[in-house]
Amino acid sequence: MPQPDEPLVGGWAPFTTLDFPGRLAATFFLRGCPLRCRYCHNADLQTRQGASPLRWSEALAWLDQRRGLLDGVVLSGGEPTMDRCLEQAIRDVRSLGFEVALHTAGVSPKRLGRVLPLLQWVGLDIKAPFIDYARITGSEASGAQARVALAMLRESGVSYEVRTTVHPALLDAQALQTLAHDLRASGVGRWVLQPFCGRGCVDPALSAENISIEMSLVTHLRRIIPEISVHANDC
């Protein structure tokens, strides 16, 4: 079992071309998340307890053998900023010569601020209009945290992407329009929409079908934020 003084790895993907734009990377999913988003497809990683496919030392040994084959490493979750060993994990990976990306919902702006200087890219999940965050996440503080994290990220100069998972039962056209205005007011010029994927979702009210995003809606939202892309649904 992983020790308390090392990251808790809940899963990993040996190769991805999607999680770190422009890089060939491996992704490690760290355990723990305080949010309870209904559409979550990694609900088994919400708890800090559970099975781990490998120790962090084993992950580093594996990465050491991939020097020259991979460009980067993605730390995802769960919510990786919940792991108190995140900063050391990033330093470990960088010491092997890899670039590092972070996937986060911004729930710990303080820890995010400490690691931002060590990162090459951040994927920031913005889940709803800031005033309506708790309806999606189950956390009253999460909207304010996400707003602070976004401002911190924009000021850092680190390359980033803001993305939002879309399910019409949770975010209808009006909510997405409100969110678009929130993001524009925060200085966001590029926004990625991700259609809900039912794979792994434990909410039966949402998991019955996969979702596509109507291009007419995207066209409307582009009047607010011109640069919007839609990730393909790979379910």
List keywords for this structure.
28% helix, iron, Anaerobic ribonucleoside-triphosphate reductase activating protein, TIM Barrel, eight-stranded mixed beta sheet, alpha/beta, 235 residues, rSAM
Overview of the molecule:
- This protein is an alpha/beta fold.
- The chain has helices at residues 56-64, 86-95, 109-115, 134-137, 142-156, 173-185, 215-221; strands at 9-16, 25-30, 72-77, 99-104, 121-125, 159-166, 190-195, 227-230.
- The protein has one domain: TIM Barrel.
- It is globular, with a radius of gyration of 17 Å.
- The model has no long low-confidence stretch (mean pLDDT 92).
Q: Which percent band covers the strand fraction?
A: 15-25%
Count of alpha/pi helices:
7
The Cα radius of gyration reads 17 Å
By DSSP, the count of extended strands is 8
Number of domains: 1
Unreliable residue stretches? none
The CATH H-level superfamily is Aldolase class I
CATH class equals: Alpha Beta
List SSEs in N-to-C order.
EEHEHEHEHHEHEHE
Domain Radical SAM core: 29-177
Pfam families: Radical_SAM
Cofactor: [4Fe-4S] cluster
Keywords: Iron, Iron-sulfur, Metal-binding, S-adenosyl-L-methionine
List the helices and strands and how they pair.
Elements: E1 9-16, E2 25-30, H1 56-64, E3 72-77, H2 86-95, E4 99-104, H3 109-115, E5 121-125, H4 134-137, H5 142-156, E6 159-166, H6 173-185, E7 190-195, H7 215-221, E8 227-230
Parallel strand pairs: 2-3, 3-4, 4-5, 5-6, 6-7, 7-8
Antiparallel strand pairs: 1-2
